[in-house]
């Protein structure tokens, strides 16, 4: 199975959303959800500085997650879904 487990960056605020070491610092997420993403200059990475607290903030974080160019934004509990989607079988048994 493909390794899809980039390490969670240590700066992320505790909670279900987080960024991983795959982040390349493109800053897209901070443009979409500036309330929730912060920049760590020494490592040139962005991290969840504050978990989303309102439906609007969560929507923006999800938008950033969906569009992150290197898939470095994750939500706890989504790992299996991502693997299934990558494999293209949507969880259905193979024929
Ligand atoms: S959009 Fe993705 S790659 Fe770009 S800064 Fe945010 S987490 Fe990093």
Describe the overall structure.
This protein has about 100 residues and is α+β, with helices and mostly antiparallel strands. It has a single domain, classed as Alpha-Beta Plaits (2-Layer Sandwich). The strands form two sheets. It has a two-stranded antiparallel sheet with strand order 1-4. The longest helix is centred in the middle third of the chain and has 13 residues. The mean pLDDT is about 85. The protein binds iron/sulfur cluster. Iron/sulfur cluster binds next to helix 1.
Topology, please?
Layout: E1 17-19, H1 28-32, E2 37-40, E3 45-48, H2 55-67, E4 73-75, H3 79-87
Antiparallel strand pairs: 1-4, 2-3
The structure holds iron/sulfur cluster (SF4).
Summarize it:
The chain has 95 residues and is α+β, with helices and mostly antiparallel strands.
The strand count comes to 4
Total of DSSP H or I helical runs spanning 4+ residues: 3
Structural class: alpha+beta
Strand order of the largest sheet: 1-4
> What's the helical proportion of residues?
25-40%
Number of domains: 1
The radius of gyration is 14 Å
Strand content: 5-15%
Overall 3D shape: globular
Keywords:
single chain, 95 residues, alpha+beta, Alpha-Beta Plaits, two-stranded antiparallel ribbon, two-stranded antiparallel sheet, 28% helix, 15% strand, binds iron/sulfur cluster
